[in-house]
Specification:
The structure is a single chain. This protein has helices at 32-44, 129-144, 171-183, 201-214, 239-247, 265-268, 276-283, 287-320, 323-326, 328-371, 373-378; strands spanning 48-61, 64-70, 77-82, 98-109, 114-127, 161-166, 188-193, 220-225, 252-256, 271-272, 383-386, 403-407, 412-416. It is an alpha/beta fold. Among the domains are: 46-127, Nucleic acid-binding proteins (OB fold (Dihydrolipoamide Acetyltransferase, E2P)), CATH 2.40.50.140; 133-285, Succinyl-CoA synthetase domains (Rossmann fold, 3-Layer(aba) Sandwich); 372-438, no CATH class. The strands form 3 sheets. Strands 1-2-3-5-4 form a 5-stranded mixed β-barrel. α6 (265-268) links the parallel β9 (252-256) and β10 (271-272).
């Protein structure tokens, strides 16, 4: 059955849908829809092919993956799509920089005129050449200690002047300025406009970095760039730039790309910000927050001071209420009575001890008197002894002519022995006087 052909009125151009692209003229053009349908029909006859490349972009949206593959030997690239129905046939750990082979089929989107390749299978080949170089450089710099946190310089709390290295009239510059000024309106910038991609980017950034580092007013340097394809961010992983950033005296903040972008500059810089907006927030304090902190500290200080004064007043009142301070003479009177009592007790004890001593002394004197030879002498007896002090107990001890000393109750007399005489003890006088010698 022949296809329906719309009627053509003589003298008028045929409808655009009825003209095949190869038969189109200026008077009888074909429609865009028919052109796209013709292209789609031509492309669908190609079938599937296997290609090798490096992943340079990887975005997941609504369950599908939209990515780009780059030729490993050149700069040619293609767009690929991995639909949700095919994702289970590709490795889950695929990422930017991976070297892969993929089975692709050309697809042309008629409504939008977009050309891409649908992926039905994909597998790893190894790290892409660029990623491999970056990994070797990362390992080298890490071994040299350029990533160590100990060597990184602290970011000043409130920089007087911020050095900004970014592209001219870029969104990154606007984001940094706008967010920093919102947080601290008096913030000042010294901006160096440079090329942020391509072969000129690294020399331009190095020159700007040297100028800002030499400026004594610049307290911190921010290197900022918006997001982009990993290919365009390679300059921020250049070894010359990394070593220059590590060598400068001024703290450096890296604010390259978006959250998932991670050039090596992020590891060498003193502070990594996920975006230019984040860099402004981390470098400049929020004046509102600082005022709130100051108000809070002042409130806490006032509260502590009030509590301390109240506590000291209570302590003073407590001290004033004590008896020693309320009636100081009361303590003196109490102590005076105690002292008088102690003195009275001491006097009574001393007198008692003296009386006891006198009695004991009298008793000892009486005992001594009773035992003393003087008591015997007081009864009329005498003690005779030789000149040499030998007490005579036998008359034979004093032969005739022996000189004697006779001790009496009061004093002593000298005598000479006539020798042994009659026993006179029986005929002694009642008075008890001694006749031992003359």
């Amino acid at each position: 059955m022949a296809a329906f052909q719309p009627a053509v009125i003589p003298g008028e151009a045929p409808p655009a849908d009825s003209v095949a692209p190869r038969d189109s003229t200026a008077e009888a053009p074909t429609s865009i829809g028919r052109l796209n349908q013709t292209i789609k029909g031509f492309i669908e006859r190609w079938g599937s092919i296997w290609v090798e490349g490096e992943i340079t972009s990887w975005n997941v949206r609504a369950g599908a993956i939209y990515a780009r593959l780059k030729d490993v030997q050149g700069t040619a690239q293609i767009s690929i799509v991995i639909w949700s129905s095919t994702r289970n046939r590709v490795p889950a750990d695929l990422k930017i920089g991976d070297h892969v082979v993929a089975c692709v089929k050309a697809d042309y989107y008629v409504k939008g005129g977009d050309f891409s390749f649908q992926v039905s299978a994909m597998k790893h080949v190894g790290l892409g050449e660029q990623l491999e170089k970056l990994e070797r450089l990362r390992a080298k710099l890490r071994a040299e200690g350029l990533f160590d946190s100990a060597r990184k310089k602290p970011i000043p709390f409130l920089p007087h002047c911020i050095g900004l290295i970014t592209g001219q009239r870029s969104d990154a510059e606007k984001d940094v300025h706008r967010n920093a000024e919102l947080r601290w309106p008096q913030v000042r910038f010294r901006t160096e406009h440079v090329t942020v991609q391509g072969d000129r980017s690294v020399p331009d950034i190095l020159a700007a970095l040297a100028r800002l580092d030499a400026d004594p007013e610049v307290d911190v340097i921010v290197i900022a760039r918006g997001g982009g394809d990993p290919q365009t961010l390679l300059g921020f992983s250049d070894e010359r730039l990394l070593r220059a950033v590590a060598a400068v005296q001024t703290p450096v903040v890296s604010a390259i790309g978006h959250e998932n972008d991670h050039p090596l500059l992020d590891d060498v810089a003193d502070l990594r910000a996920s975006t230019p907006t984040d860099a402004a927030k981390r470098v400049v304090p929020d004046v509102g927050e600082q005022r709130a902190i100051v108000a809070q500290l002042r409130s806490r200080m006032t509260l502590r001071l009030t509590q301390r004064i109240s506590h000291d007043i209570a302590q003073l009142e407590q001290l004033r209420s004590r008896p020693a301070l309320r009636d100081p003479e009361h303590g003196i009177r109490t102590r005076t009575q105690e002292v008088w009592q102690l003195v009275s007790r001491g006097r009574a004890i001393a007198e008692r001890r003296i009386e006891q001593g006198l009695l004991g002394t009298a008793e000892l004197r009486a005992s001594l008197r009773a035992l003393s030879p003087a008591a015997t002498l007081a009864r009329g007896y005498a003690i005779a002894h030789t000149d040499s002090g030998v007490i005579l107990r036998d008359a034979a001890q004093a032969p005739a002519g022996t000189r004697l000393v006779v001790t009496l109750e009061r004093g002593a007399v000298a005598a000479t022995s006539d020798g042994e005489g009659p026993d006179v003890r029986a005929a002694s006088a009642p008075s008890g006087t001694s006749e031992a010698g003359k």
